[in-house]
Specification:
By secondary structure, this protein is an all-beta fold. The chain contains no helices and 21 strands. It is globular.
Length: about 290
């Protein structure tokens, strides 16, 4: 899977989900967006907690900021998620919740006089709608602040991809001693375990699936390979990863102890790299569900 080029990468740090109570000064004189900011989500796995189900997302933020002044500005921006209630953006609505938080603040950066900067960033968020009823869209609020003048530029809009079905689909259900499929959970299947003919790896469905403890990840190799096993929340974010310098051609099993995970749906990625200079890597994937009880 390919991802957008990050022209500017600004690591985010997770903060409280409470709303900012400061009174911003707008507009931010001399600084403006070139075009419209955009926030889009690519869904991944899910977490389960009592009656609530949340989805993990890779979030992509993009905007271009133009400094039309003769001043060097120190810039920081924050983004938070919420919903519209009565036409007003609300970030602390009881209609949504998050385990990891949905307000993020960037590091600071400098914007030289009479220049523009393009921001393309990715970060992680999980969102849950509660109570469950008709699906309603998520909105974002982006606030750009000049630490030089203490002025703000704020915009809100709908989040692209904030739909109920934007997530991993199709968990192949298996029994405790076999990877043979006995059904599909949360179908339709979204293409797990299917590899091109030239691939060196043939990933089998994990078992038992669902699991509450040990998960066997089974894969066949056509030649000796280096192996990377990742347990992912989203296409970009791993929660566990394991490297092996050499696995022999033929059947291989990785026994993953899953009891440190939250109840939910995850994706196993297995990347095989044959020994030898210049040989390409191949990645196969499949989903599993972990339920502690």
């Amino acid at each position: 899977m390919r991802y957008p080029l990050l022209f500017v990468f600004l690591p985010f740090m997770l903060l409280s989900c409470e709303s900012d109570t400061s009174a911003p000064t707008e507009p931010l004189d001399g600084l403006h967006y070139d075009g419209k900011p955009s926030v889009s989500l690519v869904g991944g796995g899910r977490w389960f907690e009592e009656v609530d189900t949340g989805t993990y997302y890779d979030a992509y933020l993009g905007f271009k900021l133009n400094n039309a002044t003769d001043t060097l500005h120190t810039i920081q921006y924050e983004i938070q998620y919420g919903v519209l209630e009565g036409g007003v953006f609300i970030s602390d609505s009881t209609r949504i919740r998050s385990i990891y938080g949905y307000r993020f603040v960037s590091d600071t950066f400098s914007l030289a006089p009479n220049t523009a900067i393009s921001i393309f960033d990715t970060f992680f968020v999980d969102l849950c709608q509660t109570p469950k009823n008709d699906w309603y869209p998520y909105f974002y609020q982006l606030k750009v602040r000049s630490l030089t003048t203490e002025e703000y530029l704020t915009t809100s809009d709908i989040v692209k991809g904030g739909t109920e079905n934007n997530r991993f689909h199709g968990v192949i259900k298996t029994q405790g001693l076999s990877s043979d499929s006995i059904g599909i959970i949360d179908g339709p299947d979204d293409g797990d375990y299917r590899e091109p003919a030239e691939s060196v790896i043939d990933l089998q469905p994990s078992f038992p699936n669902p699991t509450n403890n040990i998960l066997d990840v089974i894969y066949w190799l056509k030649e000796n390979c280096k192996i990377l096993v990742r347990i992912n929340l989203t296409p970009l974010r791993s929660t566990e990863s394991y490297r092996f310098d050499n696995h022999w051609a033929g059947p291989n099993t990785y026994h993953f102890k899953a009891d440190n995970l939250l109840n939910g749906q995850y994706r196993v990625y297995v990347t095989a790299t044959p020994h030898g200079d210049g040989k390409p890597s191949y990645t196969s994937y499949g989903d599993f569900i972990y339920l502690s009880q």
